[in-house]
Every structure is written in C-alpha cells, then in structure tokens.
C-alpha cells in the first residue's frame, strides 16, 4: 500500500506489472531493458532497500516463467495425448524456458517492489525506513 490515501493495492500492483514506481506510478525506471535506476526519478524512492532485496524478484521470475512453462506443457499434453508431437512441443517450450526469465526480468523487479510495498511492508511499519527520508 502506498503512503497516499486512495492508492489501492490493485493500483500499486498494476504499476508493478507495467514497470512503474510502486509509490508514485512514475515510468522511466529503466535506463535500458535490464538496467534499473537506483531511485525513482519522480518521488525518489530508493528501490534496493537492502542487500539481497531483489531475491524476491528472482523468486517471482522463477514462479512466473516456471508456471508458464508448466501450464503450457500440461495444456499441450492434454490436447495432444496420446499422439504427443514431441519436437514441435520442444520448439515451443524450450524458448519459453530459455527466454522467459530474460524477457520477464524487469517486470519481476517492479512487481516485487509492488508486492513488497503493497503487502509485506504493511505488516511491519517500522520496516518502512525509506519513508522517513523521502520527499
Ligand atoms: Zn516514484
């Protein structure tokens, strides 16, 4: 949840899914596809709150791309059983496994920040150290 009233968890999560700042909704958080700026250009929120903070983004990336792979695999099996086209399936599924995490990488970071701010930091207000020095 943001510190501003009226900014719902849904809105904060939407900002995360659209690579926007989880506090103010600003875009332009990436210098290029993989390089995130350290602080929000509009509100100054520092994104990496502590060392290892983005391990949560890694977990989200693994769950999202692994989930996509698993669901695609099960649907393909269910639709084609008993004559499973192994080679076409591999042609589709291997790129998902290889490139999915790369494509999803920036989204996983902003989604993680949104999850952290929308759900986790609410549990312990004393953890919100970034708010004390923010504008
Ligand atoms: Zn911001």
Keywords:
mainly alpha, two-stranded antiparallel sheet, 4 helices, elongated, binds zinc ion
Could you write a compact summary of the structure shown?
It is built from four helices and two strands, in the order αββααα.
Plain-language structure description:
The chain is mainly α and 135 residues long. The protein has helices spanning 9-17, 55-80, 86-120, 129-133; strands at 30-32, 35-36. The protein has a two-stranded antiparallel ribbon. A hairpin with a 2-residue loop joins strand 1 and strand 2 (35-36). Helix 2 (55-80) runs antiparallel to helix 3. The mean pLDDT is 88. The structure holds zinc ion (ZN). The site of zinc ion (ZN) has 8 residues, from loops. Residues 21, 23-24, 26, 40, 42-43, 45 line the site of zinc ion.
Helix content: 55-70%
Radius of gyration: 18 Å
H/E element order:
HEEHHH
Looking at the chains present, what oligomeric state does this protein adopt? single chain
Low-pLDDT ranges: none
């Amino acid at each position: 949840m943001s510190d501003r009233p009226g900014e719902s968890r849904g809105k904060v999560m939407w900002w995360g899914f659209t690579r926007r700042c989880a506090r103010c909704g600003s875009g332009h958080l990436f210098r290029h596809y993989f390089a995130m700026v350290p602080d929000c250009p509009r509100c100054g929120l520092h994104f990496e709150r502590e060392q290892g903070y983005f391990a949560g983004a890694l977990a989200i990336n693994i769950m999202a791309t692994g989930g996509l792979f698993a669901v695609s695999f099960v649907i393909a099996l269910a639709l084609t059983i008993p004559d499973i086209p192994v080679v076409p399936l591999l042609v589709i599924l291997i790129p998902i496994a290889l490139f999915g995490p790369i494509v999803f990488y920036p989204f996983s970071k902003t989604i993680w920040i949104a999850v952290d701010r929308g759900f986790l930091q609410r549990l312990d207000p004393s953890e919100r150290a970034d708010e004390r020095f923010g504008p």
